[in-house]
Amino acid sequence: MGMPKATTAVATGLATGVRVLQPPTGPPAQAPARSSTPPVTEGQAIPPPEPFQVIPAQMPENLTPEEQRKHQALYVTTLQASHALRDKFGMVGILEVVRMSDPHLNTLALGMDLTGRNDTPPRREPEFYLPQSYFMNPPSPKLEHFSKFSLETLFYMFYSMPRDQQQALAAWQLYERGWLYHKTEKMWIAAQPQDDGAGNARNVYYDPMAWEVKYVPKEVDQAGFLTKEEVRVRGVTP
């Protein structure tokens, strides 16, 4: 009785050391199922992707329950894990910081006040000594000095040093130079009119806002000027 051809081929291959592929003996393999998603035509919206399923990780052996839990958390991918970053670090994650419900999250996002940790060393004011010359006030200008000041300096001292003796001395020197102070108009007006260039004599006043001499825009009451006696500083001016 002769051997079948397939058996003879296997035996020949084993004897010669050559690998012989046997024909499959089981049921024929089925073709892969076609996708149920219809093809997308031009102008048609692309459907959203299907959510992925749980992909279990190949867990090593001899792990403690705690190590198994960590391994699952690190290597197992779930649908919830896909939304973890978006829920923690996106616009939704800002709500957890605003609510101030998690102290650890607040420390991570907002930090901590280092000045309240009692880490600063104690401070002590160093001892120092200042000589008495440091506490002496500078001497005030004398009456003879005001005659050397320019007109702008006198006006500066009058407007920038209220209720000071230097203001009174500056006013006295302005009167010495032919300027009069009008109580109603609150301005300094020159006693002598000046030529405006057109052959007209007009009074001029000093404008502290523009810091220059201007022509008086209107007639002023002559009775509103301070007299020189009212400006005189008793015990200082002659």
From TrEMBL:
Domain of life: Eukaryota
Keyword ATP-binding: no
Sorted UniProt keywords: Transcription, Transcription regulation
GO biological process: regulation of DNA-templated transcription
Region (Disordered): 14-56
NOT2/NOT3/NOT5 C-terminal domain ranges (all copies): 122-212
Encoding gene per record: VIP2
PANTHER family: CCR4 NOT-RELATED
InterPro entries: CCR4-NOT_su2/3/5_C_sf, Not2/3/5, NOT2/3/5_C
Homology family: Belongs to the CNOT2/3/5 family.
KW Transcription regulation (keyword) present: yes
CC terms in the record's Gene Ontology section: CCR4-NOT core complex
Protein name: VIP2 protein
